[in-house]
Amino acid sequence: MKKLSCILAAFAVLCMAVSAQAKTYINGIDANYPPFAYVGEDGKPAGFDVESMNWIAKTMNFEVQHQPMDWDGIIPALLNKKISMVCSGMSISPERAAVVQFSEPYFTIQKVILVPAASSLTADQVMSGPTKLGVQRGTNEHELLETRKEEKKLSYELRFYDSAPLAVEDLLNGRIEAIAMDSAPAQDAINKGKAVKIAGTFADDDVFGVAIRKEDKELLDLVNEGYRRLRNDPYWKELQAKYLTK
């Protein structure tokens, strides 16, 4: 009887271990979108969104792996189940919301025009053209600028880049005159000592959310509850101080 009791106890422990095993989700990120997501000098993913999701995963009892990807292919990768979600400074737009579901918004950001520090161009002048205007391909800004250019017959010439930092380098080298981008990476470039400045905004503010496949309600609920807990934890302010302030 004692031997049987030991076997049953061991079996119970094994069952508990299996049930407690955390599920693993893969988060697709932009490899070069500071301060929200990027690959650091040590080769590891980092940034505001990366650390936020790490905290949420730990709190909500799941594992997360961050997979750097080309931004213009990240939604197809999500739909094809190569990744589980996109938590990487993704703007919620009607076009994206038609094919994926989004978590509750967790951050509001401005859309700005970045110019060289010595430039006298205003945001309105950049948008009215003719100017060479850089933008990261596959972004909400990319879609907006192409649509606006066609509908309003504007004369700016769009130049496309794989990341915001690459566009900043071309701006400093004089290959383009301005960049349309989110305010956080623009401020990140300024904070790093780049000779650039924000000339103004060119569209309404955007909100960021985590993109998830429409059928994955379980993950959506985990992420929404995770952000609710994170925003009520002191760590939320620590992350903002670390990544989003000077």
User: Largest beta sheet: what is the strand line-up?
Assistant: 5-1-6-13-7
Structural class: alpha/beta
| Sheet with the most strands, sense and barrel status | 5 strands, mixed
Radius of gyration: 22 Å
Structure characteristics:
D-Maltodextrin-Binding Protein, domain 2, 5-stranded mixed beta sheet, 246 residues, 10 helices, single chain, alpha/beta
Can you lay out the helices and strands and say which pair or pack?
Elements: H1 2-20, E1 23-30, E2 32-33, E3 37-39, E4 45-46, H2 48-59, E5 62-69, H3 74-79, E6 85-86, H4 94-97, E7 101-102, E8 107-116, H5 123-128, E9 132-136, H6 140-152, E10 157-161, H7 164-172, E11 178-182, H8 183-191, E12 196-208, E13 211-212, H9 217-231, H10 234-243
